[in-house]
Amino acid sequence: MPWAAVAEGNVHHVMRPRDIARELERIAAHPYAREDGRGAAPEAVSQGEPIADILALLRLRTYVDFSHYKQTTIRRRIPRRMAPSNPQSPGEYLALPRGDGGEVQNLYQDFLIRVTQFFREGTGRESQAPASRPEQSVDPDRQSSQLHQELAALREYLQSANEALATVNEELRHRNAELARVNNDLTNLLGGVNIPIVMVGRDLRIRRFTPMAERSFNLIPTDVGRPITDIKSRLEVPDLAGLITGVIDSLTPHEGEVRDESGRWYSLRVRPYVTLDNKIDGASIVLVDIDSIRGRGPRAGDGKPPGDATADR
C-alpha cells in the first residue's frame, strides 16, 4: 500500500523512520500548521500580492481562474502546499511552481480535489457542487477560445460538405443533361419511325409507343403507365398479354401474322426488352404491315381463321 501511494504521487517525502519525527516537528512549526482558521475574515487578494501572482500562474498554466474562490479557501490551500516544501511565505513558495510544472499541477489538483464546496464572493451561501468539477470555474477566455475552435472546425466541416455537395450536384447536372439528350433522341427516333411499336415493362405497363401505334393498338398519350391488358386493341389477338408474358419468361422472341378489325394483315413481333447490363425488363411489340404481300384473305389451304395466325411461328 505505501509504495502504491508513492507511485500515485500522493506522498511528499520518502524517508527513514528516524527522519520522520524531525520532519513532523518541522511541519508542526510551519505557519500553516499554527493557524487555527478562527481568525478574522481574510482580506481580498490584491494585485501585486504573491498569492495573486500564484493564481495568475495557475490561470496561465491550467486555464482555470481560481481568483473567484472564497478567500479563506485560497489563503489556506496555498500555505498547505508550502508546508511539505518548507517555504515560509507565499513569496518564497512562488518560485517553486514557476520552476516546476509538477507543482503547478499539484496545487491545481489540491484546489479541485480537497475543496468540497465552491464559494463565490458575495453569494453568502455555499454551493452544493463538488469541487472536482472544474467546469464551474473554467476561465471565460478559455471557454471563448474553445468555442472559437469548435466554430472554426464546424465551418471547415460545412465548407467541405458544401464542396462535396457541389461536386455531387455537378455530376447530377451532367447526368440529367445526358438523360435529357437520350430522351430527346429516343423521342425523335420513335416519332420518325412509321411503324407501330409499343414498349412495356415486366408488369405489362406501357412505357412508350410510337405515333403509328396509337391507331393499331387503340392508344392515347395518357395510356402511358397503364397495363396493356386494360387496352382493347384493334388487333385480332385472343391473348396478347399471355403472349407477351411468355416471351418475357422464356426469353424467346415471337413472330406471327395477325389482322386488325378492318382485315389488314400485320406481322406481330414480340421481343424481350434487354437493358445495357443484360437484364430482361419487359418486352417490345412491333407491327409490320404485310397486307400488300399477304393479301386480304386466309392463306390457301391452311383452314385457320385469321385470329389464330399468331400460332404459326
Structural summary, described in words:
The structure is a single chain. The chain is of the alpha+beta class and 313 residues long. A hairpin with a 5-residue loop joins strand 3 (254-259) and strand 4 (265-274). It has a five-stranded antiparallel β-sheet with strand order 2-1-5-4-3. It has helices spanning 2-7, 17-28, 31-34, 50-62, 71-85, 90-99, 101-114, 140-191, 213-216, 240-250, 291-294, and strands spanning 197-200, 206-209, 254-259, 265-274, 280-289. The protein is built from eleven helices and five strands; from the N terminus they run H-H-H-H-H-H-H-H-E-E-H-H-E-E-E-H. The termini are far apart. The longest helix has 52 residues, at 140-191. The radius of gyration is 47 Å and the shape is rod-shaped. Helix 4 runs parallel beside helix 6 (90-99), helix 5 (71-85) crosses helix 7 (101-114) and helix 6 (90-99) crosses helix 7.
Task: Summarize the SSE layout with pairings.
Blueprint lengths: L1 H6 L9 H12 L2 H4 L15 H13 L8 H15 L4 H10 L1 H14 L25 H52 L5 E4 L5 E4 L3 H4 L23 H11 L3 E6 L5 E10 L5 E10 L1 H4 L19
Helix pairs in contact: 4-6, 4-7, 5-7, 6-7
